[in-house]
Amino acid sequence: MSAPARAFTMRHVQLLRALFAAVAALMITFSSDHSAAVGLAVFSGFALVTALVHILAAWLVLPAGSRWAAILLAVVSVIAGMASGVPVWRTDDMFFIVLITWGVLNGGLELLAGIRARRAGGALATDAITVGALGLLLAVVLLLIPSGFVQEYTIEKAGTFQLSGIILGVGMFGGYAAIVAVFLGIAGLTPKRADADDVAPAPENDAAPVEHGGER
User: Fold this and answer.
1) Which of 132, 137, 122, 127 has the alpha carbon at shortest distance from 186?
2) In the prediction, which pLDDT does 123 show?
3) Going by C-beta distance under 8 Å and a sequence separation of 6 or more, which residues neighbour residue 17?
4) DSSP letters of 95-151?
5) Which of 150, 148, 110 is nearest to 130 (CA)?
6) 16 vs 203, higher pLDDT
7) What residues does each domain of the chain span?
8) What pLDDT was estimated at residue 6?
9) pLDDT tens for residues 148-200?
10) How far is CA 21 from CA 50, 139, 157, 178, 179, in A?
11) Which residues, 6+ apart, have CB-to-CB distance to 82 below 8 Å?
12) 32-62 pLDDT, tens digit each
């Protein structure tokens, strides 16, 4: 008989991460307020639920020797999520500090895990490398936004508006979340060799041998 398939696989991990990233992207996109308070509130929820997914992956999916990356990613996201969840800390500077630090640590860890998985022939190495690189890219982009940046612009018949560094920063996080959601969503809906490995192949000689009568 074949071994039972796992109820929770890496495909589910990818789809859950894609779902939570999509929710974060939609909340940023459809919010007219791109302040640090809103950005950190959305990021806090995103980081904490993503940490939960990493914990589930380490507990239910990954083999013993491969759990270190998921556990470290969960720890980093929990710390970042809790720090950004304190209302009095939700300032412009705190937004950039938390997201840049999280992007470097989280992106670096996932990139490293993907590189190690590729060397070992892991089927999901490319996904980890891509998402890790996106996290590092987010950190770099946020670092390039000038501190205290403010730019006024005028739209005819609409009025004068102000573009600030925090608006750009929150928008960049929303863009990052949208890209991750699309990428992991496609990856989760694509058949993977890792899912096939969850089900052990049935032995060829399961059936009892048929005895044939012979000449006496």
Assistant:
1) 127
2) 65
3) 50, 53, 180, 184
4) HHHHHHHHHHHHHHHHHHHHHHHHHTT-TTHHHHHHHHHHHHHHHHHHHHSPTT-EE
5) 110
6) 16
7) 10-191
8) 61
9) 887 877 777 677 778 899 999 999 999 999 999 999 999 989 875 445 444 44
10) 8, 17, 36, 6, 9
11) 44, 48
12) 899 999 999 999 999 999 999 999 999 988 8
Q: What is the mean pLDDT of the chain?
A: 85
Of 34, 73, 29, the C-alpha closest to 51 is 73
Distance set, CA 24 to CA 12, 172, 198 (Å) = 18, 12, 31
Cα three-residue angle 128-130-135, rounded to 5 degrees: 95
Residue 196 has what pLDDT?
A: 43
Which H or E run includes 159? strand 159-164
Tokens matching residue 144: 């390039």
Q: Summarize pLDDT for 107-141 with one digit per residue, the tens.
A: 999 999 999 888 877 767 889 999 999 999 999 99
Q: Which residues are 10's β-sheet partners?
A: none
Q: Residues 113, 137: contact at Cβ < 8 Å?
A: no
Q: What are the structure tokens assigned to 31, written together?
A: 């919010």
